[in-house]
Amino acid sequence: DIKGFVFDLDGVITDTSILHGTAWHQLADSLGVAWSEELGNGLKGISRMDSLEMILKAGGKENDYTETEKKKLAAQKNTNYVAEVDKMTPANILPGMKDFLDSLRANGYQLSLASASKNAPRVLGKLQLADYFPKIVDPASLKKGKPDPEIYTKGAELLNLPPEQCIGVEDAAAGVAAINAAGEVSLGIGDATELGAANMVFADTILVTLANIEKQLG
Ligand code: G6P
Ligand code: MG
Fold this sequence. Notes:
This protein is of the alpha/beta class. Helix content is 44%, strand content 10%.
């Protein structure tokens, strides 16, 4: 039986995946690295420094910067991203997600957050959802990011639940791979082809309801 839900944040609860993408796109432009939708999608769920590495690699520039310079570039992206986050309000919660969280609470499910973002507490605050997630995996504590299972394993541990009693909720292929490797049930939100490895996929957040999930679990 499912007793808990381990949530990704960006692109699942709110539309920040777009803000991350825009901020990285800007940085790629300034570095002369060609942007593509594929590059942008591949960055979803990937930590800040790993994302920068992927962008540099895409442009054949992985050896062009020192560690100090790379940290500066990542900080520059983060400054731009945070400026956008600070404009957010509860209106930025994706359609249906507040109702879904409320129904999970009302039905006694436990919730934790497994976001790679160091800005997750800030984003939850802006959305006025901090109360829903007293249990957040600290991304700074991770040895490896998604698609490694570590973040989802820790998400279930925070709930004191075995992984098979948890559903992991993701919008990114790297995240779905992490959930599967952690032995949890994977729920993907987005493109069914991109998220083909998930146990269930919903095209849109509005479709993510307990009733629809129960149908899929059979
Ligand atoms: C999430 C997003 C990624 C982002 C990562 C780190 O996983 O999907 O796009 O790069 O968090 O976010 P941060 O806010 O710490 O730079
Ligand atoms: Mg995400």
